[in-house]
């Protein structure tokens, strides 16, 4: 019996190309290349066998066929494999995205420094940009305007100065304020109380609170004169008021009246139906980084999720995923600041301050109740 003839070489080559195309297409890095994702430029490069060059994921050149593409962790790896850098995207130099990130980081350092806050025009001149362009880059990277960032930075210094021994006058100039009038206006906005009351641990401050029940268990809602300062969940109400007292050891806690009950009803409505999104007054107290994270969380649409790494990239700190997780854990406003919408890069659920079962319930409820819409940029399916 005559043995079957071997398949033609062209058939074998076609099979190999098809296999390579499938392998490349399934690699998550290929999606970044297809979308020309600038946020991926710092993570890898890709080479094209037909041209002999390697590129950034964001390269604007005509997209190569997937069977001709290979991925490399660094420019050095690509060059050791025999590829040369693309003359269009210049992957071996600092990327525009990285240059912009460095510029924003330097602007942050200037705004963090002691002394008078530099004007936007002064900052822009130092960066070699127009004021409008710097404002746009800074706001995109941090989620805050330069003015808002500077106010938070000075507010943090204000808290530090008030925590040290000395007079209020010493704190005024130590925090970088030019006059006492500006200082007291900023202190009221930042602290929600007078500087002397803040220094005494919240003494003379009044915080209203209410205990209630919702579908997730016991609920405590508390608010200062500025807005909500705590929304906490537990299996039982016992211990919730004690925890609030420990946070504000010298404040006066009083049970909320009927007017406060309307605010509590709004919070419960948000917990039961996050798509309602009522406008609630907030008293957010945290570091600049924490506030940047919390602002990013508030931009995640109901029914969508984002990973810790994605939030870190959105606020201009691509290596800060763990710090983002800590900021989520420091959130004291359950559901109002939707840290339950943050998941691992794989889509699996990570920790949740108020328990993973509640996180699962919230995500499942939002996925069921919200009409499907275009996905949040960088979002991943909930786990």
Explain how this protein is built.
There is one protein chain. By secondary structure, this protein is of the alpha/beta class. The protein is 45% helix and 11% strand. It has helices at residues 9-26, 28-34, 75-80, 96-112, 120-127, 131-142, 146-162, 168-174, 180-191, 195-199, 240-247, 258-272, 288-298, 308-314, 321-330, 356-369; strands at 45-48, 53-55, 69-72, 84-85, 206-214, 217-223, 228-234, 252-255, 306-307, 342-343. β6 and β7 (228-234) form a beta hairpin. The chain is flat and about 80 Å long. Residues 161-196, 198-202 and 372-383 have low confidence and may be disordered.
- Output the strand order for the largest sheet: 3-1-2-4
Largest sheet report: 4 strands, mixed
Distance between the termini: 58 Å
Determine Rg (CA atoms, Å): 26 Å
CATH architecture group name of the largest domain: Orthogonal Bundle
Percentage of residues assigned to helices: 40-55%
Low-confidence runs of at least 5 consecutive residues: 161-196, 198-202, 372-383
CATH class of the largest domain: Mainly Alpha
What's the number of domains?
Answer: 4
> At the fourth CATH level, what is the homologous superfamily of the largest domain?
Homeodomain-like
Number of strands: 10
Structural class: alpha/beta
Percent of residues in β-strands: 5-15%
CATH fold description of the largest domain: Arc Repressor Mutant, subunit A
Name the shape in a single word: flat
Mean of all residue-level pLDDT scores: 78
Compressed to H and E, one letter per element, the order equals: HHEEEHEHHHHHHHEEEHEHHEHHEH
Number of helices: 16
